[in-house]
Amino acid sequence: MAIRSNVTGAGRSRVFTGFRTFGGALELALDAFVHLVADIARLRHPWRDSVDQAWFVVTVTAVPAILVSIPFGVIVSVQVGSLTDQIGATSIAGAAGGLGVIRQGAPIVAALLLGGAAGSAIAADLGSRTIRDEIDALKTMGIDPVRRLVVPRLAAILFVAPMLCILIIFMGIAAGYTINVGFQGGTPGSYISSFASFASVGDLVVALIKTEIFGVIVVIVACQRGFAAVDGPRGVANAVNAAVVVGVISAFTVNVVITQLVAMFMPQKLG
Fold first, then answer.
1. For 218-247, what is each residue's pLDDT tens digit?
2. Measuring CA to CA, which residue among 52, 43, 79 is closest to residue 176?
3. CB of 77 within 8 A of CB of 179?
4. Tell me, what DSSP letter sits at residue 132?
5. pTM of the entire structure?
6. What does the alpha-carbon distance between residue 161 and residue 137 come to, in Å, rounded to a whole number?
7. What is the spatial distance between Cα 171 and Cα 101, in angstroms, rounded to a whole number?
8. What letters, b where the CB count within 10 A reaches 16 and e where it falls short, cover 99-126?
9. Alpha-carbon distances, residue 68 vs 81, 94, 113 (angstroms)
10. Average pLDDT, stretch 151-171?
11. Whole-number percent of the chain with pLDDT over 90
12. CB-CB contact of 192 with 149 (8 Å)
């Protein structure tokens, strides 16, 4: 009975800890957005810090985005081309491959890159500052760590995330086009016309919105885990690992919800 009681107590403790962490992340996100809007309205936003952070995110994600999106586009094109060839619907290969890249591929790849590269770097930086008591020093001097450290990173992600998504979409569709036309016997006109018949501006807008949401999730989780780092370098490593895992899993979970909502309220239409 004592063992069962201990196990139950440990389970409840984990649940309460999870709820506290989730609530802290929501509070951090709300504070960051309030400060961001207020600073921009008052012309007090540290644009130089945001530009530096944006450039850093670009440098760590641009090349991997290209290297990932090309094989992703090739894989989608090969699989879709093989299926459409078997059922005699090669004319829609461009539409199927392009929609797969736009609706799901690009936002998911962007979330992986932002979480793995940008999120880990943010968590490592803030975690290192936390264990060196720099965050407490800022608070002692009357400087809000959220406004000083989180807001510039949030602004940078909001700016870079849609551009990263567009880059992935362009490279993925270009790779799919090359494979379909060059190796699967497709024609340029058929590929482009089928893609234009199915794809719409709404698909691109949804992809960009999803990527923005994923970027916000990644940066908020990374900042929250960085601020919560304890126990020296080991705690920083744990914070980085948690930031990547939790950020990516949270983005994927939100993606499932958004995909279902889009399917319900924005069903796919031909033409």
1. 999 999 999 988 888 888 999 999 999 999
2. 79
3. yes
4. T
5. 0.88
6. 32
7. 10
8. bbbbbebbbbbbbbbbbbbbbbbbbbbb
9. 20, 20, 9
10. 94
11. 46
12. no
CB atoms within 10 A of CB 75: 17
Q: Within 87-119, where are the H helices?
A: 93-100, 106-113
* 99: nearest Cα among 181, 178, 215, 194: 194
Distances (CA, A) of 36 to 4, 57, 143, 228: 48, 19, 15, 22
**Residue 32 CB coordination number (10 Å):** 23
Max distance between CA atoms of the chain, in angstroms, equals 72
Q: Is 19 left (phi over 0), alpha (psi -120 to 50) or beta?
A: alpha
Burial class (CB in 10 A: 0-12, 13-18, 19+), 247: buried
d(CA 104, CA 111): 11
User: What pLDDT, in 10s, does the model give residues 108-119?
Assistant: 999 999 998 889
